[in-house]
Specification:
Shape: extended
Helix content: over 70%
Strand order of the largest sheet: 1-2
Radius of gyration: 29 Å
Order of helices and strands: EEHHHHHHHHHHHH
Distance between the termini: 39 Å
Structural class: mainly alpha
Length: 333
């Protein structure tokens, strides 16, 4: 007779060798991803500088252009967006308020192209149709889940339709939230630099440009916005419009306070450095209060992981040897 190879060791009915192999493969994949991420580090300002240069050229072209038709040809360069706009226009689904809101959210997410607003609106229309059709055909025609009841199948289809419709808005909201959080972190430092530039005698345009260069590496999102504001201050005829555009692009109450201060300074000639110093102190206190609030919430947040993950392991480590000793004594007796 041939010798039967011994079975693999198991723990609670699970093949230990298979689990170890899976974990080793997962660790190898994680190491490869980490190496790739470390080897492909890119300058965060390279893409932003390109976008700012494009915005500068658009402002120049808008000032030089002599007719509204030429301006329209300059801004509508994206052929795909033009086709999408034509489709939505033929379906009578374009509303000025909806387009304006989508363009504002794109600007707050750091996406400069206004034409992509039509793509977002088109995605709300197409994704539910495509994904809903796939799920309906798979569930009711191909019978993907034969063991499911009618209520579960209906829930899957309804959930897919709702998620597909909300997916573009969720994606935009996520990008806006991350960008706003990054800008909030760097705003006190930016105001301190603006105070230094104002006390050194720089103009508002030069101060914004200098702060954008200094903060470009540490806070690329804020540096991008300040650089664009500096460009608009130099090209737009109404300087107030440049500050209002900054408040529109950033969904943050602190930025609105800064914009209001800058507008009042431009209008009434009030001292800029003292006003910005007060705002910087307020923003630093606000950041410290948010940190203290998170620290105070930490014990309550850690309660659930403590009960679910730490206490069971602690009980096993403490009571495990005693249980083994009791079991051995009972077996001997």
């Amino acid at each position: 007779m041939q010798d039967v190879p011994p079975p693999h060791p198991t723990l609670l009915g699970v093949d230990v060798l298979m689990v170890a192999t899976f974990l080793a493969a997962l660790a190898t994949f994680a190491v490869l991803v980490a190496v790739y991420a470390a080897a492909t580090v890119r300058d965060p300002m390279a893409k932003r500088v390109k976008a700012l240069n494009e915005r500068r050229e658009q402002l120049k072209a808008g000032i030089v252009a002599s007719s509204s038709k030429r301006r329209r040809n300059i801004t509508n360069k994206n052929e795909m967006a033009d086709k999408v706009r034509g489709v939505l226009g033929s379906l009578k689904m374009l509303q000025d308020e909806q387009v304006t809101k989508a363009q504002r959210r794109l600007m707050q997410a750091g996406i400069r192209s206004k034409d992509l607003a039509f793509v977002v609106i088109f995605a709300r229309l197409v994704l539910p149709v495509v994904l809903g059709t796939i799920v309906i055909v798979g569930v009711y025609v191909l019978d993907w889940f034969p063991a499911w009841g009618a209520f579960k199948k209906y829930g899957l289809v309804a959930g897919t339709l709702i998620l597909a419709y909300k997916a573009p808005d969720i994606w935009l909201k996520n990008k806006v939230t991350k960008r706003t959080h990054a800008i909030r972190k760097g705003l006190p430092d930016a105001l301190d630099l603006l105070v230094i530039c104002a006390e050194a005698g720089l103009t508002v345009d030069a101060a914004f440009s200098r702060v954008a260069r200094e903060l470009g590496k540490a806070y690329p999102e804020l540096g991008d916005e300040f650089a664009l504001t500096s460009i608009e201050l130099g090209f737009l005829t109404d300087r107030r419009l440049a500050f209002e555009n900054l408040a529109t692009r950033i969904d943050l109450e602190s930025i609105r306070g800064v914009v209001t201060t800058m507008i009042q300074t431009e209008k009434y000639g009030t001292p800029l450095a003292s006003a910005l110093r007060v705002l910087s102190a307020e923003f630093r206190n606000e950041r410290m209060m948010r940190a203290e609030e998170k620290a105070a919430r930490l014990p309550a947040i850690m309660t659930v992981p403590l009960i679910l993950f730490i206490l069971p392991v602690l009980f096993i480590v403490i009571l495990g040897p005693a249980s083994c000793s009791i079991s051995d004594n009972l077996l001997k007796n």
